Amino acid sequence: MDRYPQDYVLHNLPLLLLSGLNTRSPSEPDPSVKTHDFLHEGGFRIKVDAPVVSGPLAEQLLRSFCEQDATGIPWHSQYSTARNGKVFKIVKVGRVYTLPPRKAPPPPHSPRLSAVGANGSPPPALVLHSPLSPLTPSSPLYPDGIISPLWITKHQSRLPCAFLTFFTLGSDPNTSSLQDNKLKSEINNVRSVLTSANYKTRLVVILLGDGIVNPSDLEERLGTIRRATGLDGKSIYFFAHNSSLAETDAFVNSVLSSLHPLCVEYYRDLSKHARRKRNRNAAPQPTVQPGNSHILSLPGWNVRYEFKLGVFAEFRQEMDAACRNYETAYDSLFAAEIIDAIAVWSPRFNEARLLADAIAFRTIRCLLWTDQVTTAVRSWVAHRDRIRDLVNRRGKGTDNYGWEAWQTAWAKIMADLVSRSEYPPLHVELLNTSGLLPIFVDVEKSLSVGERFVPWEQLHHEGYWLDIAKKCIVARRQWALQIPEDDRQSPGRSPASMVASKAHLYDTYLALEPYREVPIDGSPGYDYVEEIISTLDAAISHFAKRGQLRKMEILELQKAFEQIHAESWAEAATTLRQLWYNRHWRHAGWWKLLQGLGWVLLDCLAHVEDGELLIQLIWELSNDVFDRKPNTNYDLRRVIAPSSSTDGLLSVAVGIDEALSPLVATFAFSTHDVFVGEPLDCQLCIQSRAQVGLPVIRLSEIKVVFEGSLKPVYLLAKEGEDGDAHTSSAQFIDIRLNESSTMPLSGTRRSSAGAVASQTGSADLTIPPNYTKIFRLRVVPREAGEVSVASVTLIINDDRLTFAATSANFSHTVGQWWESKAGVPTPRSLGQESNAFNKINVQPKPPKLKIEAPGLRRSYYTNESITIGFEILNEEEEDAIVSLGARMISPVEGAAQMMWTGEGLEMARATAPGAGVLALPDRELGTIPSSGKAVVSLRISDTAAAVDHEIELLATYRLNSEQETILTKTLTVDVAVIRPFEANYDFIPRLDEEPWPNFFEVPPQPADASASLGLRHLYSVAASIYSFATEPLVIEAILLTAAKIVGGAVCSATTGIVRKTVETSDAAKDTNATISTVITPDHTETFDFDLTLQKQILGDRHTVAVELALQIGWRRQDSDEVSTTLLEVPRLVAPMAEPRVMLTVSSTSLGPSWNIGAYKLSFTIENPSMHFLTFNVSMEASEDFAFSGPKACAISLVPISRQTLAYRILPNKKDEWIGVHLNVVDAYFGQTLRILPGGNGVKVDKKGNVLVKV
Questions:
Q1: Is the domain of 82 the same as that of 145?
Q2: Residue 297: pLDDT above 70?
Q3: Which of 184, 167, 182 is nearest to 58 (CA)?
């Protein structure tokens, strides 16, 4: 678009001027510089004497306004709707600004200046018009011009739709009246200028506060200023001094939103004015009639008015209306009475062409804006065809450089339109691609069904349009070079008559004159190469975004040819280098094209010193798929000239897998599987694919590197080898490999064979063209694992050169093994796999070392210290040096610990290399003689969790005769840790036989001050222990311990006694009774405990909660080591201050004459509270027994007291449990107390019924 006036091609936006907000920076362009003097002389000058508003708030406000500038918004409706109010072109101006004049001044020598007219009357008044009107004598359009870009400049750069002026509103109440009067004066001055200019520009006043102002005073002051200046509510705003950044942005958005409909109406009024003039259907008269010239005709005026209507519609962002106006103006312009009526030699003809281009450009922009892409492409083609017809009929034709210059500009116009619009369908990434963009847009849906179209009418991306422009530039250069030398001379060196006669021979519209296009005097003319290269670079970038690699390479090649044409050898070499390194042509097999590229690159390197690239080219071009380039030295050792400016040694590396090579290296193993320490036959094949007739290739060394345990192999060239030719085309060479430390390297000055541990050998490394050498090697793997060929490197060392060609990808080669048949080496395929025998598996040497765990048990138990003994037996035929490592894998991290056991060992802790893995340091066992053994032990402790562990022992050993061969033996054992016991618990309250303290007596002071004085509760705890063990276990001790007590109490418990061993109550009370018992697998044993809870303070009424634990000391029957298992016990909660009823039973006698069993029931009612309680007691009769005692009574208890109610019953059953129902109800609260068993022979069933054993 740079070929056209910017105002003709830029999208029009409503102009907004910011005055007085801040001074313009010296680095910013002055908006008045780009305008013509017509827009300044005689204009309306706005001058404000108030100082410019400055400070952080002003800068913040200015920044927010500038961020709303829509100048850089893409030209498309999608971005227009999503730009959040950015519809203005916002320009910052100072306190002095000049609006363009409405009328031009009268001509200096007009009839009006005479005293009287021809008939003695005063002369008629002159009709003055706009300075840019074709009716004004001083206008550049006078008398028959249609329109000038200056008219768009006037509305886009000088005449705003809104004028925003900023002032400071003082906060000092003492000077506020004076400051407000000055503001009124300044605002009225600006309004008077706008009124006198008769422009409908909107005046907006924004007042910035400099301090805190009372809201009521502020409203009053703003109202006074508004009334004094005649402003409405949408024309004056106040911005507080302490506004934040978010408030600033909101304020700016509010101002612009309120201005937008007013500015649209402003341009709509201008459209109405232009439409009224068009509808007059009469051409206006000029200020002064021209002499012999004709004035602009009515059709010309209609073109002018339609173009204005289209521009004003663009200002309003109504692109559909603008497109219709532009199409009407375009059709009218090409009418016979306008453009065909203009003389070709007249400047008006080129002005008409420029206007036609501008209208066509704006029409296409409107079509792209509204997604009419196919119509837009057709409009571009139609305009090109119409201009071609015009210049063929009335111009200089199309066979000249001027026409190609116009075609270049027109093609770039379309590329710029697509780019500036950022057309969404062309700039949205395609799905399932790595950021690629579409190539073209489908035909629009608005076309009629069945309408025919060509593929080109689908809108393509910018690269295609730039490619068209490049072709036109090349054609322009070809036509320009055909201009005769006489026409290319400067006008100053040719006679005036000759200059005048040739002035109109060439089309210079958008092009230079012949003497400037291609001057003959040696001065620089038009830079075709620069424009071609810049156009190609832009096109390449667009094709790259779409992944069009082939087109990119074609354009890159054209770019290189242009650089060669300009003798820019370095730039050409850089461009060709990128193409040469590209692998696409090699994969496609385009050898002739690649050969031409290489030859051209060699020609460039004749002028550019790049030794590395030269060596790479010579190496690859030596392949037999290419032809030999005449007069080219293919010897790598001599291709670098001694006089080269390359300092020192030149190092070059080439990848054989990525490019063609005259030598191909392959490596093959004789078998897939081999054991450690066994010799392995290998073949290294070097096959020459060099062109016949080229010099032999003399390698200095060959390096083979392996992935795995094999050492690198180096083959060094023998000194004095002449490379004699053999009768056959292949040759076997046997190589004996030696360790690098024992190999004499006197002939390898820069060999890397001694840098690392390697195997070396020597051989004749001279390879003639079309010849194959097979080097037979034998290697011995020393470690187990997978071994593959990592790379084969061919190295050439010279005084000035180090060259290395490396092959690291053998998947594209077929594995072959060469065999001798009738004395001739013959290849044999190694299998169907393409990578056969390039990878082998070195299996460990079968170890004869055994690891056993003779004492391993089937299961172990939690909290048990586990010791596992291992025996290492050496069944090798010689002594072995053994190192033993161990690790434990657990499903739960931290589930156990382990360590080595034994005398003289350091207690090294196990490390955790991973989650759930513990590893011990290797234990050196020293030398184990043949048929000998070593014993080690491993201890596992802290086995609190019941999980399965996996113990892995790795024995690494070496035989005395093969110190380099490392053998391994692994043993994995499972250690199952289970819980040996599970228990269920029953808590049964018991009656405390000791008397309670008297509430009315002071208790005696105990001898021990720490003794507890509170009430005491007794419980009988029955623990039913179930054995999960896989063998009988001996329980040596069992304790019930308190882990935590809450409520201010003490707790004690007796040692557990197995229930089945207790036969009498006396035995239960015997503390010396044995508790050792054997519990068999899957059996349950019940242990009884007596648990006592006693309050420390007598008056403490808090509930007691006890967290208990059951400690079981047990051992295996074959071991004396006792382990302790800790089981959790449910929490016991004892409400010590609640009343309760305890029942005990004992047998009694009715007398010596009665032989019937009778029982005494003692109901003890306890009141541990500090209240007087009364209970209503009633005994229910039963069919199972007869009783004697109170049927119903009331019992009153004082605080901290208890009373026993006795009944005697005579049951009618024997050896059965019978139910006893005694109701005890609190007389005050009405709460029924539950009967609790207080001793043996009483229990409560699941339904809460109290049962007595009779």
A1: yes
A2: yes
A3: 167
- Is there a single domain that holds both residue 1015 and residue 882? no
Domain range enclosing 1119:
981-1000+1009-1134
Q: Tell me the residue ranges of DSSP E strands in 128-224.
A: 162-169, 202-209
Residue 434 CA to chain centroid, in angstroms? 14
**What CA dihedral angle connects 1020, 1024, 1025 and 1027, to 10 degrees?**
170
State whether 995 and 1051 are in the same domain: yes
pLDDT attached to residue 1145: 94
What integer is the mean pLDDT of 500-509? 74
- Give residue 836's pLDDT: 67
Please tell me whether residues 931 and 986 are part of one structural domain. no
Q: Is residue 255 part of a domain?
A: yes
Q: What is the pLDDT of residues 568-615, one digit of tens each?
A: 999 999 999 999 988 888 888 899 999 999 999 999 999 998 889 999
Provide the CATH number for the domain around residue 1089: 2.60.40
pLDDT tens digits for 862-885?
888 889 999 999 988 889 999 999
Neighbour tally for 1050: CB within 10 Å: 17
Q: What is the pLDDT of residues 1046-1055, one digit of tens each?
A: 988 899 888 8
* Distance, CA of 449 to CA of 716 (rounded, Å): 77
Strands (E), 1140-1200: 1140-1148, 1158-1167, 1173-1179, 1185-1188, 1192-1197
**In the chain, what percentage of residues exceed pLDDT 70?**
89
470: its two tokens: 């490049």
* CA–CA distance, 990 with 1241 (Å, rounded to integer): 12
Is residue 201 assigned to a domain?
A: yes
Measured distance CA(292)–CA(278) in Å, rounded = 26
Please tell me the distance from the alpha carbon of residue 920 to that of residue 503, in angstroms, as a whole number. Answer: 100
754 has a pLDDT exceeding 60: no
**Under 8 Å CB-to-CB from 905, ≥6 apart: which residues?**
923
Q: Between residues 246 and 213, which one has the greater pLDDT?
A: 246
Tokens, residue 970 = 């692994």
CA separation (Å) from 230 to 37, 48, 227, 233? 33, 18, 5, 10
Query: Contact at 8 Å (CB) between 929 and 876?
Result: no
Query: Mind giving me the DSSP string for 482-497?
Result: TS-GGGGS-GGGS-HH
Residue 398 CB-half CA count within 13 A? 13
SS3 state at 576 = helix
Q: Cα-atom radius of gyration of the chain, to the nearest Å? A: 55
End-to-end Cα separation, the chain, in angstroms = 118
Same domain, 1108 and 1153: no
Amino acid type, 86? K
Query: For 967, what's the count of Cα atoms within 13 Å in the CB-facing half-sphere?
Result: 21
Q: Are the beta carbons of 362 and 346 closer than 8 angstroms?
A: no
Q: What is the DSSP string of 918-942?
A: EEEEEEEEEEE-TT-EEEEEEEEE-
- Name the one residue in this structure whose structure tokens are 């106006």: 325
Strand partners, 666: 685
Q: How far is Cα of residue 1235 from the mean position of the Cα atoms in its chain? A: 72
C-alpha angle 837/843/849, rounded to 5°?
A: 170
The Cα–Cα gap between 715 and 857 comes to 58
Cis peptide before 143 (omega within 30 of 0): yes
Report yes or no on whether pTM surpasses 0.70. no
Q: Are 48 and 169 in a shared domain?
A: yes
838 or 328, which is more confident: 328
**Which residues are CB-contacts of 1251 (< 8 A; sequence separation ≥ 6)?**
1217, 1218, 1219, 1220, 1242, 1243, 1244, 1245
Indicate the number of domains in the chain.
5
User: What stretches of 373-492 show up as alpha helix (H) in DSSP?
Assistant: 373-393, 401-421, 462-480
28: Cβ contacts below 8 Å, ≥ 6 apart:
92
